[in-house]
Design a protein that fits this description.
single chain; about 90 residues; about 65% helix; mainly alpha; Arc Repressor Mutant, subunit A; about 0% strand
Length: about 90
């Protein structure tokens, strides 16, 4: 998941590639990683967004969509919830 963070990752497809059900994949993933696959993917994308905000000239909207967030508003909301500041504030640090 880390290498494909910019791609449209379908967690059910990962389970299928491993020849296990999605529920088995989710249970085993959570045992190993301590969080669900969806939360892990979201957190990985949020951490990548921090890097992109500082290292690129892409707009916040472009970053949100490159990282497969469904909308700019959703991205901004969860970014602020996760890090305590908005992506706009973070970009200016």
């Amino acid at each position: 998941m880390n290498e494909k963070v910019l791609e449209d990752i379908q967690l059910s497809e990962i389970a299928s590639e491993l020849n296990i059900s999605y529920s088995s994949f989710r249970i085993n993933f959570k045992k190993y990683a301590g969080v669900s696959p969806a939360k892990y993917l979201r957190d990985t994308r949020l951490n990548k967004s921090k890097q992109m905000l500082h290292e690129t000239t892409l707009s916040i909207k472009e970053i949100a969509f490159q990282l497969q967030f469904s909308s700019l508003e959703y991205f901004s909301t969860i970014f602020k919830k996760q890090f305590g500041i908005s992506p706009k504030e973070f970009k200016t640090l």
